[in-house]
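Q&A log
Question type: sequence-to-structure
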Amino acid sequence: MAGMSAAATTTAKYRLARIGAVARWALAVAACLWLAWCTAVGPLYWDDSSIADFGWVNALFGLLAFAVYLFIVVALVRLSRRQPVLGWATNRTTGERVPRHLVPQSLRDVWRVSIGKYRASRFGMRAARIRTFLARWIVRCTDRRWKIALVLFIGWLWVPTTLFAAFGADLRSQAREFSWAWNQWTGMKQPYIGFFSFVPMDIYPTAHYLWPDNPTYLTDQHNIVLTICYGAVLAASRHLTDANDMGIVVLAATQWLFAIGCVTATTHRFVNLPWLRRNDCADFAHPERAGCFAPKRFGRPECGMRAILPPQAAHAPARAAILLFFLACPLAVFSTISLTKSPLFAFAFLWAFGIWYELDATRKRSRQLPPRTLAALVTANAVMLASAKYAWYILLFELVLALLADRRRWKIYIIGLLVPTVLIHGGISLAISSGLIISGDPIESRGVQLQQIARIAQRAPETIPDSARQKLAPVFNLDQMADAYTPQDADPVKSSGIQSKKVSYRWRSVTPQDMKRFNEAWAEIVKANPVVALDALMAKCYGYFDIADMPYISMEYYVNNDQMRFGTTWIKYINCDWRAWVANAASGWSRTPVLGWVTHGNFYVIATLLIGAAEVILRRWRTLSWHLPLLLLMGVMITAPANNFERHMLPVAFCFAFLCLTFWRQAKSERSVLSTRNGN
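Response status: OK
Response body:
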C-alpha cells in the first residue's frame, strides 16, 4: 500500500508538472498571438480600413509573425538550457542528456570549425589581438562609476550645448498655469468661471464641477509637482531676462545631469556588481590572481595594488552595447533634454530598476540595504511619483510583488515604496480635497471608450441607439466627436488643445450625475456595433506591438517643432539649421527598413514581451517579480491617449539592455547549478 501511495504521489506530481508546463507555454503562445495579431491588422489601419476587411494577406502576415515570435521564444528557452536551437541535445527515447561532443554534427559545429580556421590564420590572430586590446580598454573605461559618468558626460555633451532644449505644448501649459496662479497670489483679478472666460484649465479641459468654490488655477493635469517646478523656474527666467528661454535651458540642463546620474548608477550596478565583497571576488581556481587585487604596474611594485572586477562582472561586448544604445539611439539622446513628464519618469524608473537588481542579487547575502542605496530608492520613486500620475499604481504593484518574493526585507520595501507613495500621492490627494489645486479630469483615462464612441459616430452613426444618445448628450456632442475623431489620438475627441478647437466634450456644463450615465451609454453603443468598436480599440493601441508600424509621435518631434521654432525668444535663432538637420537625420534613420527598428520604442516593447514569455517558461519567478512592472507599463500604453507614442515606451526601452544581461546571467547560473548536480 505504501508503494502504491508513493507511486500515486509521483504520478500526481508528474501530472501537476505537466499541467504547469502546458500553462506556461500557453501563456507564452498567447503573448506571441497578441503580437502576431497586431502585426496582421497593422496594414488595415495604415489604410484607415476595418477589421471587416481582414483577408488572406493579413492572415499570412499574422502567421509569419507568430512563427517568428514563437521561434524567438523557443530559441531563448533552448539557449538558456544550453540546447541547440535546431535539433536535440537529449536522447528523446530515454530523456538522458547527451554530452555535447557526441551530438550529431550541426550547423553550429560547422560554424565552430570555420571560426577555428579563421582564428588560426594570420589575419585572424591579428584581429584577435585588436579585439583583446579593445575589450581590455572598454572594461577599464567602465569599471568605476565615475568613469561611466565621464563617458556619458562627454558623449552627450553636444546635446545641451547645441540643441539647448526640447519641449512641446505641455511645458507652455504648465508655465501658463503657474503664471495665472502667481497673478492670483499677488492680488491680480482674473476671470475664473464664466461662459466667455477661458483659463488654463480649459486648454486641457477639466470639467467645471471639479473646480473648488475658491478660485485656483493650478491643476494636477500634468502632475502638480512638475507644474510648480517648471512654472517657478520659467517665472524666474521671465523676471530676470524677460523671456522663458533661459529657464528652459536651465531645466533641460538639469534633466540632462539627472539622466547621466540615473544611467550611470544603473549601468554600474549591472555591469560591475559593486555589492560583491572581496571574499566573493576571489578566484580560488587561480590563486596567483590574488583575489580582487592586481598590481597597478607590473614593472613597478612600489606603485601599489588596484582593485579588479569580480569574475561575474559583464564583459566588454555587453558594456559596449549598453553604452552604444544610450549614446547613439535617438530615444535616449533626445530624452535627456526633452521637458515632458515621460522622459523624467523613464530615467527615474531606470534608476529604480537598477536598485531592484541589487535587491534581487543580494537577497541571500544580507537583509540590510546600504543607507545610500535605500536613499537612492526613495529618491527614484519620489521622482517617479512627481513626474507621472500613474506611478503610484506601479509602486503599489511593486510593493505587493516584493513582499511576496522577499518577505524578510519588508522594512526596505515599506520605506522605499510605501512611504514616498503615501507622502507624495497622499499629499496631492489632500491638496485636491482641500481645494488648493484642481484634480485632473477622469475623462483622461477613458481614451478607449471615447475613441470607440467617436468612431461609431463617424463611421456608423445610424447604429447608435436613441437611449444612448440621450444619456450621452449632457457629456458629449456626438456630431463634434465624429468630426474630431482621428484613429490614433483621443485628444481631439476630449477637446484638448488651444481655444480654437472643436468642443465635443461639454466640460463647462457636465455634472457628476451625467458622468454616471456615460458608461451605460458607452456599453449600449459598443453592443450595437462591436466591429467598429474593436476597430477603434485596435487603431489606438496596435502600433505599440506592431514591429512595422512607424511612431505616431517620435522623440525627435520635441527637438524641432512649432513650439521650438516660434514659441521661443532667442533659442529659435541659434543653431536652427543644425537642430532641423539632427531631427531629420534621426527621422531618416527611423524610416530605414529593419535598420530603423532599433530607434523605435515598439521594438523594445516587443522584445521585452518575448523575453518575459521565456522567463515564464523557465520559471524564473523571483526575476519576474521585478520585471513585471514593465508589463504593467504596457497596459499604460494601451490606455494612453495616442497610439505608438514613443515617450510612453521610454522606460521599457531604457531597461531592455539590462533585461538581456540579466537573462543571460540567469541562464549561465542555472547551467552552472545543473552541471554541479550532474557531477560535471
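Response note: Confidence is low (pLDDT under 50) at residues 91-95, 99-105, 281-291.
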